[in-house]
Amino acid sequence: MRMRRIRNNPILRKMTSETSLDVSDLIYPLFVIEGENIKKEIPSLPGVYHFSIDRLDEEIEEIVELGIPAVILFGVVDHKDAHGSGAYAEDGIIQRACRKIKSITEDLVVITDLCMCEYTDHGHCGILDEHHVVDNDVTLEYLAKIAVSQASAGSDVIAPSDMMDFRVARIRRALDENGFTNIPIMSYAAKFASKYYGPFRDAAGSSPSFGDRKGYQMDFHNGNEALREIEQDLKEDADFIIVKPGLAYLDVLARAAERFNTNFITYNVSGEYAMTMKAIECGIFDESIVYENMIAMKRAGASMIITYHAKTVAKALKEHRFD
Ligand code: PBG
Ligand code: ZN
Fold it and tell me: What is the mean pLDDT of the chain?
C-alpha cells in the first residue's frame, strides 16, 4: 500500500489526522500559598508561580480568558501537624481559595487535589501508626472529612491523590451523606512512586521527612497492577481516572484506555515539565515539542491532560503556532 499519496497533501493530511488537541482538554495546576501580595516564580518550575489568595484574581481571569476550562488546586501552608489539620480547616488555604475563585468566576471548574502530605509535619500522605507506617483505614476517615470540607467550600471535583485503598468508596459515601451527590471524584487511580514528582515537592513543601512513598504509591515495574487499581476505583464509582506520571507511563494509559470505557486523564507531572523547559531553554527543542508531547498523551487515550504547560499551550493554539 502506498502511504504517501495522503501524506503529500497538507489538506488531506489534516483531514485524516486521528488525534487533536483542544484548549478544553487542558487542566492547569495552581499553587496557593499563605501570606499577602505574593506572586512568586517557583524555582523548580520556571514559569509557574506561587499565589497568595489576594493575588488570584489576575491569574484566574487570564486562565478563563484563554479558554482553559479547569484548574486543580494545591495548598502550601506554614502550619503543619501530625493530623494535617490544615487540610480540613474551615479557613484552610484550599477552602479560602475555592471561595475566592468562585467569587471571581462561574466559568471555571475548580478541582481540589485531596492529599495530606502538604499538611502533615512528617510529609506523608496520611496518618502514621505507632510504627511510623501510614495507617490506611484511619487515613480514610480524614480523607472523607477533607473531601466534605473542600466540597463545602465550593470545589467542583474532588481529586484524591493519596493512594489509600478504598478511599474512593469512603469519599463517595461522605460526599453523598453530606448532600454532595453531584460532586464527581477524579481519582489518581494509577499513581506511581516516581522521581518525576521532585519539582512539585519542592514547590509544595511536601517531601516526606523520612522514608519514601513506596508503601502506598505504585511500583513502577508494574503495569498489570495499574489495571487492577483502575478497575477497583471504577467499582467504587470514580468518575474520572488519572494515570500519573504521563510521558514515561503512556503504555499504562494506552492499556487502560483499551480496557475501560471511562474518562481518562493523564498528569504531565512537574519533572516532565521541568525537563522539557530545560531542554527548550538549552535550545535542544523549540516550544512545539510541547505540542508533540500533548498529542502523544491524547493518542495514548487521555481525554484531558493536567499540565503546567496549559497556559502556553492555550496561547499557542489560539495563535495557531502549532498548526
Ligand atoms: C500529592 C501530590 C503529588 C503530586 C500531585 N499530588 C506529589 C506526591 O505524590 O509526592 C505530584 C504532581 C507533580 O509532580 O506535578 N500527593
Ligand atoms: Zn500526598
Answer: 97
